[in-house]
Amino acid sequence: MARIRFENVTKKFGKITALHNLSFEVGDGEFFVLLGPSGAGKTTTLKLLAGLYKPTEGSIFINDEDVSIVPPYERNVAMTFEDYALYPHITVFENIASPLRARKRPENEVRERVEKIAKMLKIEQLLPRKPAEASGGQKQRIALARTMVRDPDIYLLDEPLSHLDAKIRYELRQEFHRLEALKGVTTVYVTHDYVEALSLGDRILMLDHGEVQQIGKPHEIYNDPANLKVAKQVGQPDINIIECVTKYEN
User: N or C: the chain end with fewer CB closer than 10 Å?
Assistant: First the structure.
């Protein structure tokens, strides 16, 4: 179980401010979605939480411990990257098994866990192959399996369904909540797809240009957007915007 808290976090890359004064909390076992367009700061937020970046200003807490400068290997978090980050020289089985082998888990446990997660993600036939033999969507599932095969305190999922076909995407949306509920693992999920956000999230944080636009439950984000940026991000077809002037008489 893990609680997450960002307090006034700013991240700069040279003169570019990727995140500005970001503050939010994620509860134990919560499925928390970061929603926003490309360049909003979603992946930067995940990498800060994973320890791959350090905040320029502010503090990051996990279970009330300040982890702002704690290295990644000392945080029990598991992250899926949008660009897969697979090891090309070893088999799919060994890619998925690598987090377990790093923790010196027994061989029978390694095989059982890898085969179970591969079956769930429908990639059993790929286990003896190299990643180069897999399609883009299959590589995404391999990366997702490698993240989900272990028991971290926190899952960090960066656009994990973006390269999957519609049928698999739908099936995995249903599976995410079942896994999260069974394991009780706090999950931070990044997407630009409002349908994913609304269907998966216990709560949603809407980011734009590195700033929080709104935090709320899916129905709050959809029915009561805080501003035009949020309103434009959720809903299909696009919202109609009419400029007008309000006049009062008497």
Answer: C
Strands 57-62 and 4-13: antiparallel
Single pTM value for the model: 0.86
Give domain status of residue 133, yes or no. Answer: yes
pLDDT of residue 114: 95
Q: In this predicted structure, what is the pLDDT of residue 181?
A: 47
Helix %, strand %, coil % for the chain, to 5? 35, 25, 40
**Domain membership flag for residue 81:** no
- Give the count of domains, the chain: 2
Domain holding 212: CATH number? 3.40.50.300
Is 82 part of a structural domain of the chain?
A: no
d(CA 187, CA 196): 14
Q: Are residues 7 and 125 in the same domain?
A: no
Cα 180 to the center of its chain, rounded Å: 13
| Rounded Cα gap, residues 95 and 134, in angstroms | 13
> Running along the chain, 250 residues long, what does each successive block of 10 average in pLDDT?
94 96 95 94 96 97 95 90 85 95 93 91 93 87 87 88 76 67 79 90 96 96 92 83 87
Contact assessment for residue 180 and residue 2, using Cβ atoms and an 8 Å cutoff: no
What 3-state class would DSSP assign to 239? Answer: coil
Q: What is the pLDDT of residue 84?
A: 78
Which residue range forms the structural domain that includes residue 70? 1-76+152-250
Is the distance from CB of 36 to CB of 208 less than 8 angstroms? yes
